[in-house]
Design brief:
globular; two-stranded parallel sheet; 3-stranded antiparallel beta sheet; 5 strands
């Protein structure tokens, strides 16, 4: 049975699901998904600890086993390329990520894959930007996607701190 835990952060409450062997989901929610419980899980505890360190500015990247679930080969290639090649403090455009992934997915398709990422923050979809700006972001509290993306990129030093 999967385990679920939460962490209050500057960008809202983060929910984390662990299978006990891998982190399977990171969401902006404070209620457990159906079938998950709050039972003891060492991997979940480690994931919450690493996320806390990240938000406290003590960690830049994550060292956790993840399970992306059922994905197409192309989607898995894109998410893996993002995880392996875009470090904290860096950004990549949707088009550049398409090239890095070795797929033929157009930039718009890369955006859709980012929106379906099951483990945001760990697989850092917030680091993928448009060629002419931030692009979109489906993470964060409802209606706060772009503000959340900007905060995360500022936190990592990839963007200058906003004046407003």
């Amino acid at each position: 049975m999967p385990s679920f835990g939460t962490l209050r952060t500057p960008v809202g409450v983060i929910g984390v699901v662990s299978s006990g062997e891998a982190i399977t989901q990171v969401t902006w929610r404070s209620t457990a998904p159906v079938g998950a419980d709050a039972g003891p899980d060492a991997l979940l505890d480690e994931a919450i600890a690493q996320l806390r360190e990240y938000f406290d500015g003590e960690r830049r990247d994550f060292d956790l086993p993840i399970d992306l679930g059922a994905q197409t080969d192309a989607t898995r290639a894109v998410l893996t390329a993002l995880f392996e090649t875009v470090a904290s403090g860096d950004t990549v455009t949707y088009g550049e990520l398409a090239v890095r992934s070795g797929t033929t997915i157009p930039a718009r398709g890369i955006g859709a894959i980012m929106g379906a990422n099951p483990v945001p923050l760990i697989v850092p979809c917030h680091r993928v930007v448009a060629g002419d700006g931030l692009g979109g972001y489906s993470g964060g509290e409802p209606g706060q996607g772009l503000e959340t993306k900007r905060w995360l990129l500022e936190h990592e030093g990839a963007l200058p701190t906003s004046l407003f």
